[in-house]
Structure formats: structure tokens, C-alpha cells
Design goal:
2 copies of one chain form a homodimer.
Chain A (H helix, E strand, L loop, with lengths): L1 H8 L4 H12 L4 E2 H8 L3 H13 L3 E6 L2 E8 L3 H33 L5 H24 L4 H10 L14
Antiparallel strand pairs in A: 1-3, 2-3
Helix pairs in contact in A: 1-2, 2-4, 3-4, 5-6
Chain A binds a DNA duplex through helix 4 and strand 3.
DNA sequence: CTGTTATGTCAGAAATAACAGACGTTCCTG
DNA sequence: CAGGAACGTCTGTTATTTCTGACATAACAG
């Protein structure tokens, strides 16, 4: 239930988040009808939600021999889970946003009606976003175990920095 | 406009995001009425949105001498901006979620009706979340300039780590 | 081929969120 | 103290999202 509500605040609808939570906690693959009655929502809703979760790569179909129904399991590795969510959000939202920002910044460059300050801020935003995007792209290729170590290091990471790297 | 739409997908309503964008690009403090007519929305809506943005610490009131109206400016340092957004989201959403998760995990511990797998997964989720929370808390105290260096390093950071840090 | 079971699709109902306009309050001015 | 200006709040309306139930399609069994 909590997972469902939380989802709502992040632009994921409640049913989708609830189904995800249910599958995450389930020790065996579930099919649509069981999910629908467990959560008390319509099967059609489950069907659509499962499709969305599949689109995010957070669940996958598993065949159960002797049962025609589609069964689903959730990815249970949490690092993998956040990686996939991040990948989805980036692709659907961040990338188009950067593209739009690039267009804005370029147009502002030529438009005398746009003040110097606005131009500068657009540029700053674009630079920042692109820096973050680059960081993300690189971190994506770091193995999860290494990432976990980095995270656990916390701010002690700073100690290992070369002194004043490239000023 | 783009900023506004993007906001919608992240649980921030359009007006709020649009006003934020407008203030971010403006070179001078603006008051409610100017914002309302610029964006074509009702002043009451602007009033509420300004309150919300203030609650997130993304804008602040600045007094203009000889003018009774409240004028607002946005935080323009992008590092500061993301820090504040992160702080707000954590406080309002992540912290309650962790609290709920803790309760769930604790109850599951004593409840024989909860399977071993579900118990284990709840525990894993809680551990993961707490690890991330700890990391966030530490990173919060790292100066922006240092953070920026870390980000620009990207995955090259791995090179500087002591080999196999604490296994 | 026919009946059965599962899944997908769609239109409209229900719920929720966003918004505008009216009203009330406060604060300032003369 | 009266008048005016800015701001906040509240209520009803509009728009959007979410969800459901009915129907359509596909896969399979006998």
C-alpha cells in the first residue's frame, strides 16, 4: 500500500506500483487474476499495468509448464532495479528535456530579445544537465559491486581524490 | 513550457514548474501579477504556487524599496537547486517511506504468515534504502565544488580507490 | 470446428488534481 | 478612520488521470 502511494507522488500510478510491490515480495510467479483479486482491482487494469511494468523492464514473463496463463516475476536485485528505473526515466524524460533545452539555448543565442542573463542561465542549465548525463553514462558501466563500495564509502571518497584535480 | 511539462511527469504541477522556470530566467525580481500575466494563469494560482516554491526553498522573497508588492527571485546556483529539491523530496517522501518500511519489516519478522522470501526481500529493501540514505546524508556535507569534481571524474574515480576497499 | 480460457482493447464512469474567480484579511496612506 | 492595494484562502468548475466493465481477439483442447 505504501509503495503504491509513494509511486503516486513520483508520477507512477498507484496500481502499477502496487503490482510491482506485490511481485517483488512474492516468492513465486503470479498471473493476472491472482494479482487482481489480491489487490482488489480490475483485471483489465492489471493487464495494462503489467504491460507498463514490462516496458520498464522491472518484471518479466515466465512460462509455467502446464499452465497457459502468463506468469510474472519482478527483478529482485535492487541495484538492477534502480538502474532500470533510471534508464527508463532518462530515456523518456531527461533526454527529450535536454534536446528541448538545447534548442532553447541555441535559439536564445541568436535572439536579441532574450536578455544576456536569460541566455547565460539557459547555458548554465544545459551545461549542468550535460555534465550529469555524462556522469550517468559512465556510472552505468561500473559494476554493481563497485558501485556499492563507492556508496558505502560515502564522503570518505573525497580522501582518495587526487589533490585539486585539474583545478 | 517544456519545464512545466517535465514537472508534470515528476509530481510537480505545471504552474509551479513554469513559474520556477520564469523566475530562474528572469534577471530581476518579479511580483505575482507580472507572473500571472506573463504565463496567462490566475493570480490566485500564482499565489499558491509561489507559496509552494518557497516551501521548497527554491525561491525567496526580496523586498523592493518603494514597492509594497512581494517580489521573488529564484535560486540560480544549480548545485544548490538540486540539493534543495533533493532535501525536500527526502524529507517529505523518502523519510516517511523508510519509516513505513521499517514498520513493515519489523512486523513481518514476527508474523509467521509472512513467508521467508517476503521477509528477506523486505529486509533487503530496507537495508538498501538505509545505505542510500546514509550516503546522501554524507554527500550533503561535501562542498559543491568538490562534488562537481567528483562528477566530472565520472567512472575514473574507480581508479583512485584503494584496491578492494574493505572487501 | 466448437467451446473454453486467457489476454488485449476500448469507451465511458469515477476519482483526483489543477485552476479561476469571488471573497476576506491585512497593511499602508492620507 | 476611510479607502485602496496587495495578498491569502476558499469554493466550485474544469481538465486530466485512473479505473472499470464490456467486448474483441487469440490460443488451445477435445
Amino acid at each position: 500500500m505504501h509503495w503504491g502511494n509513494l509511486g503516486g507522488q513520483w508520477g507512477v500510478n498507484r496500481s502499477v506500483a502496487q503490482i510491482h510491490a506485490l511481485l517483488y515480495l512474492s516468492d513465486k510467479p503470479l498471473h493476472a487474476e491472482v494479482i487482481a483479486e489480491t489487490l482488489g482491482i480490475a483485471r483489465s487494469n492489471v493487464s495494462n499495468s503489467l504491460k507498463e511494468l514490462t516496458g520498464w523492464n522491472l518484471i518479466r514473463r515466465v512460462p509455467i509448464s502446464g499452465d497457459r496463463r502468463d506468469h510474472f516475476v519482478a527483478e529482485t536485485d535492487l541495484w538492477e532495479m534502480v538502474t532500470r528505473i533510471a534508464a527508463g526515466r532518462k530515456e523518456r524524460e531527461i533526454d527529450p528535456a535536454i534536446a528541448a533545452l538545447r534548442v532553447c539555448a541555441a535559439q536564445a543565442e541568436d535572439d536579441p530579445a532574450v536578455g544576456a542573463v536569460a541566455r547565460r542561465r539557459l547555458k548554465a542549465m544545459l551545461d549542468f544537465t550535460q555534465t550529469m548525463e555524462g556522469w550517468y553514462a559512465q556510472m552505468l558501466h561500473v559494476p554493481h559491486a563497485t558501485l556499492a563500495k563507492l556508496i558505502r564509502l560515502g564522503s570518505r571518497i573525497v580522501r582518495y581524490l587526487p589533490v585539486k584535480p585539474e583545478a
